[in-house]
Specification:
- By secondary structure, this protein is α/β, with parallel strands linked by helices.
- The protein folds into 2 domains: 5-132 and 258-326, D-Maltodextrin-Binding Protein, domain 2 (3-Layer(aba) Sandwich), CATH 3.40.190; 136-255, 3-Layer(aba) Sandwich (D-Maltodextrin-Binding Protein, domain 2), CATH 3.40.190.10.
- 45% of the residues lie in helices and 16% in strands.
- It contains 13 helices and 10 strands.
- Strand 1, helix 3 (50-67) and strand 2 form a beta-alpha-beta unit.
- It starts with a helix and ends in a 5-residue tail after the last helix.
Length: 331
């Protein structure tokens, strides 16, 4: 897919930012030649725990082991992830301040918030996308549906609650798409994270939830039943559970895997971005990285820098369109 005009413009603006950084930051070229010669800071705009934090720590530790400089993961939650993201967007483009965030949060905030202290098109650039794997779609014990088709029929006849871990998050979007295209009556209920969300699904306060396998697995023994998974392939953790696409759900959303974005301030030298991407690719191949991916049911791995940019340019317009269709503002 060719980049859209907006994304082509973003590439042009980021290229200009790189040139500007080279001329305005004193000694940037000399710093690049010495990089890395001081500690690395990896900002996570969420509390400790969960897949985002785990990937950030995996990357940071591998950076230290392979490049010999200390690294620290700095959790900066709050403000819909805006606090942490803006710290990286405003940092010097020298390769020492990075972001690890859910990619959907980075993309969708530009739609969900009227004013942001950063510009996604000109202030940030992707380094790697860590896949998050298929998400489990599961129903409460009292819901009789055994597959997605049966659930849609069930939700057309009565109002049901979809549990979501954040406003504008993937479950919220799925509910909106099903209401819009399948005639369901789904109301989205917001929770502060996946754990309390799945507890309420297990208790029948919410009739359906969508989230990571690891979080879902904590309630699987309490009558919560998987009826599908998101993405283009079945979860290695639930090989007998078909994807939503296999079940005839045709919206673009259900085929998107999403993931976690490793990002740097725009204008970071290309040589540094390439080196950071190599660390990202290598860290998931370690024994620790393999165990992390296995525990979450993630078979896919990050791509090289060129592949990352292609995926970014392809998927950003889709996520943004879905966020616009959701029609909500959080400020």
């Amino acid at each position: 897919m060719r980049p859209t005009p907006d994304l082509s413009r973003r590439r042009t603006l980021q290229g200009m930012a790189t040139l500007a950084a080279g001329s305005l930051v004193p000694g940037l070229q000399a710093q690049t030649a010495r990089w890395p010669d001081r500690p690395l800071r990896v900002v996570v705009p969420f509390p400790p725990g969960g897949l985002t934090d785990a990937y950030a720590r995996l990357f940071a530790d591998h950076f230290t082991q392979t490049l010999g400089q200390p690294s620290v993961v700095d959790n900066r939650p709050g403000g819909g992830a805006i606090i942490g993201i803006s710290q990286v967007a405003k940092a010097q483009p020298d390769g020492y301040t990075l972001l690890v965030s859910t990619s959907g949060t980075v993309w969708q905030n530009r739609v969900l918030y009227s004013k942001l202290p950063y510009n996604l098109d000109t202030d940030l650039t992707p380094i790697a996308l860590f896949p998050s794997g298929p998400l489990a779609v599961a129903v409460a014990p009292d819901v009789p549906a055994k597959n997605m088709r049966e659930f849609i029929a069930y939700a057309r006849e009565r109002q049901v609650n979809m549990a979501s871990y954040a406003p504008g998050a993937y479950p919220h979007m799925v509910a909106d798409q099903l209401n819009r295209h399948a005639g369901t009556k789904i109301q989205t209920i917001m929770y502060k994270g996946e754990s309390p969300m799945w507890v309420d699904v297990a208790g029948n306060s919410a009739q359906i939830g969508i989230g990571s396998y690891q979080a879902f697995n904590t309630v699987q023994g309490r009558g919560v039943r998987p009826i599908g998974v998101t993405g283009n392939y079945r979860s290695p953790k639930m090989p007998d559970v078909p994807t939503l696409a296999e079940q005839g759900i045709a919206t673009p959303l259900v085929k998107l895997e999403g993931g976690l974005a490793l990002m740097a301030p725009a204008g970071t030298p290309e040589a540094v971005l390439l080196a950071l991407n190599k660390v990202a690719l290598a860290c998931v191949e370690t024994e620790r990285g393999s165990k992390l991916r296995e525990s979450f049911g993630i078979p896919n791995k990050p791509k090289d820098l060129a592949g990352t940019r292609r995926d970014w340019d392809t998927e950003v317009p889709i996520w943004i369109k879905l966020a616009v269709e959701l029609g909500i503002k959080l400020d």
